[in-house]
Write a structure and sequence with these properties.
homodimer; mainly alpha; 207 residues; Tetracycline Repressor, domain 2
């Protein structure tokens, strides 16, 4: 049945994404993915005929798309840029705490291992980051920020949260994520309030 | 001779640091380190009797200490926090460009692979980040920032530069590092100018 085939495929992808995230691409063997997912022997090459590279590229794309949905949910209720960035920080901090500091960014470990290369894994990681950034840019645009300003603030928010996630993971303490989100959020809120009108903008920058 | 022994040991450590940084801990085998460093067979276990874990912990500590020196040199000539953060960003961007986007942070790849664990590798990565942060905090303190403010700004600068380094590596474009450094630098400069005196501080926050 197509249904159970799809289940096996999805189970393999989710297991692979989790193992790659936690221990890296290089350290994760296909046999480990097979055993941990409980998939029948032979199903790996049936579903992923191009092997480990295809599996990793699809696992990163899937994990990235799922994270993009969680991010969109987290920021949807935000009243402004500061609240949106705080909500993203809380989402990342919660993921870290809930996994006892094992699950940070679903992409970063593999992205760092593969960043010098080109190929399907690198492309999947790059598309994932741009997907996340696009979501943030569109949120910021909704708060009247100009395209370039929205892009720069999204890059700043994503960079600082990614870096804070790394520090928090190494420290086993999420405080740095919330602190960084607060400061970057304040900056974004200031930019958004300046964008509301030339008088407000002048007030924020000149006084 | 002690001298040539030290050379072999240092050569192994530098080779290991480079391989771990570029391809990760899990994907790097001891035989590859031995071959790439040109060290005689048997020298690995002679110098690193506890094996790969000891080698990685010492390689991260060495690479981290060398980066700390380069960071200290880069910020030593800075006139203020904005210039210091720009100089750090330029240092990281240059390392990325000079290595054709292979060498980002010497620690991050291994730190992400090992962050869920405790043990000598995790400890070496954590100590390295705290060493880098301490250097920045001391610079910021020299510009009259209070200890807590200096710590928070150092966390923010380090987080945002680390995250920007990851984005830049994936994009094969360092523009994001410079853009993030400019914005975080401007924020740090504002905090430092506010710290110069209560009147200036009130001017920045209340008006």
């Amino acid at each position: 049945m197509a249904h159970s085939r799809g289940d096996t495929r999805a189970r393999i992808l989710h297991t692979a994404a989790e193992l790659f995230q936690r221990q890296g691409y290089g350290a994760t063997g296909l046999n480990q993915v097979l055993t941990a997912s409980g998939a029948p022997k032979g199903s790996l090459y049936f579903h992923f005929p191009d092997g480990k590279e295809q599996l990793a590229a699809e696992a990163m794309a899937l994990a990235g798309a799922e994270m993009a949905e969680r991010m969109a949910e987290a920021v949807a209720a935000a009243a402004g840029p500061a609240e949106a960035i705080a909500a993203l920080g809380a989402l990342l901090a919660q993921g870290l705490e809930n996994s006892d500091y094992r699950d940070g960014c679903p992409i970063a470990t593999v992205a760092l291992e593969e960043a010098g290369d080109t190929g399907p894994i690198h492309d999947a990681c790059q598309r994932t980051y741009e997907l996340w950034l696009r979501g943030l840019v569109e949120q910021f645009r909704g708060w009247r920020l100009a395209e370039q300003e929205a892009q720069e603030l999204a890059d700043l928010a994503m960079s600082s949260l990614q870096g804070a996630l790394l520090l928090a993971r190494v420290r086993h303490d999420t405080a740095v994520i919330h602190a960084v989100a607060r400061r970057v959020g304040a900056m974004a809120a200031q930019a958004a309030s300046a964008a509301l009108g030339p008088i407000a903008a002048q007030g924020a920058s000149d006084r």
